[in-house]
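Worked problem 6 (solution included).
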Amino acid sequence: MTKDMTMGSPMKLILGFSIPLLFGFMFQQFYSLVDTVIVGRFLGTDNLAAVGATGSVNFLIIGFCMGVCSGFSIPVAHKFGARDYEDLRKYVANCIWLSIGFAAALTVLTTSLARQILVWMRTPEDIIDRSCSYIWVIFLGIPVTFLYNMTSSVIRALGDSRTPVIFLVMSSFLNVGLDLFFIVTLHMGVQGAALATVISQGVSGVCCLLFMMKKFEILRIRREEWTPDGHRMRVLCGMGVPMGLQYSVTAIGSVILQSATNTLGSSAVAAVTASGRINGFLACPFDAMGSTMATYGGQNVGAKKLDRIGEGLKSCIMLGVGYAVIALLVSIFLGRPLASLFLDASESAIIDNARMLMIFNTACYTLLGLVNIIRFLIQGMGFPTFAILAGVFEMVARGLVGFALVPLLGFTGVALGNPLAWLFADLFLIPAYFHVRKTLGKQLADS
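Solution. The predicted structure is:
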């Protein structure tokens, strides 16, 4: 079930590892896509805007959870690459203890502050109650978010990118059925859409946990290995917290941009929501490439094979550039039909704005590809602090757009938010990668 990425063709390894991940990320987006389609079609534009208004704060918190879990898996990947399976199990045990603690604290904090956060974001009065109903349920599901992301990250760290996808596909179909049941049959509104997402992710998390316990011999943790260890927890937090903060710092910029968009009214929010769901789906290959490079970098650093890291980076960038062209063509020729999935055909102005956002974003997908590939590679190599700094650059860019360009240019300013954020991050990450390579080379030479 495990896969050693320290030997063989980097291109073949990256493709073989990333394709299952791609399907996994696509089905994760499928959760959001189905929610949005059903909400938009069955509940109307205002409810669609209500869900969309929570997007940036959702990313702020849930992104932190995902980043922390991804960071926790890096020492696991290092120990797997070094063939130190006893220490690997101890790290996994401490991952579990930390995940329980983080999940409990975040759930209490976010559910208590959910409405106040939406008020701070200047959510329109006509949708704020529904936005709060939706995001409160999502926050209540933070423990299952940790469960799925922690278990799937550990499984991927051992080279198995396929199994988490299988469980995610299964739960995606469950999500569709629950959406229809809660919204159409029980008339639960946007709260039903959130509940369907939480239950479905919980099912996939439990499946990953059971699989991890039963199928991986090297993960069968002995009683003495369950003891919480301060040193290992510090190492895990040193990797996980910066990666979580990277997501959150990036999301702060998105919150600023969302707040600026909210001032343009619920129609603008609905357009951003529709285009955001489609762009999230189109960006899945870059998410897969990023997660692949984190595991690839982690295993090869553990095996002390720095020469393979540069080869893998070049191969992944080639894949990213090729896909960026395809995504742009999809946005140009299929933008209106895709936006029409979420909105009634009579909402032509909103559909046009959604298509414009899609084109602006996909035209700059090469920049996004570099952000994901280089940032996750650096994290996998053991330098997560750089991820926070890259997130700061994204935050600054989106902040400038929110405070200056949106008031000046209106919806066109909103469309510039992501491309400028990706450009700012790349200006930092590219030289940071060469610094990390040089630093690791010296460390290995001295060891």
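Discussion: The chain has a mean pLDDT of 86.
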